[in-house]
Amino acid sequence: MDFYGLDRSKALTHFDGVALGRADRQTDTVRGWNRLRPENLLDLLDGAATEARRDARTLAALMTRASWRINLQAPSQGKANQLVSNAREVSVSAGGREYRLQLSEGSRLQLERISQAG
User: Fold this and answer.
1) Under DSSP, is residue 104 helix (H, G, I), strand (E, B) or coil?
2) pLDDT digits (tens, 9 = 90+) for 1-52
3) Calpha distance 46→53 (Å, rounded)
4) What phi-psi label fits residue 44: left (phi over 0), alpha (psi between -120 and 50 degrees) or beta?
5) How sure is the predictor about 61, in pLDDT bands with cuts at 50, 70 and 90?
6) What pTM, to 2 d.p., does this model score?
7) Distance from C-alpha of 31 to C-alpha of 110, rounded to nearest angstrom
8) Contact yes or no for 21/40 (Cβ under 8 A)
9) Which residues are within 8 A (CB) of 73 and not within 5 positions of it... i.e. 6 or more apart?
10) Cα–Cα distance between 95 and 59 in angstroms, integer?
11) What are the residue ranges spanned by the domains of the chain?
């Protein structure tokens, strides 16, 4: 399936990380950031919030041209005593750059913002 006029299968061929999550789990939408798989990330880019759509399109185009990787980050120890938040951050390396994807976790994940790290 294409989105933003880009070839989804081509982007998946450039994925350069270990498979994350459970490939055999048949779910229609991603509900947990810790089970994020490459194809789920493409779905999140496709369904990004209005404010993030332009950045999502740019990142998706980069992912079809260069190798990319999902870097899930464990929460830091200093935040262990804080209340649970429904905001999650996933780091994606693509084309030699690092991007931070801010997701909100509700009944399903929603990509809210993309920022370039460092």
Assistant:
1) strand
2) 456 677 878 877 777 654 444 444 444 444 455 567 888 889 899 999 999 9
3) 8
4) alpha
5) very high
6) 0.67
7) 9
8) yes
9) 89, 90, 91
10) 10
11) 2-72+84-116
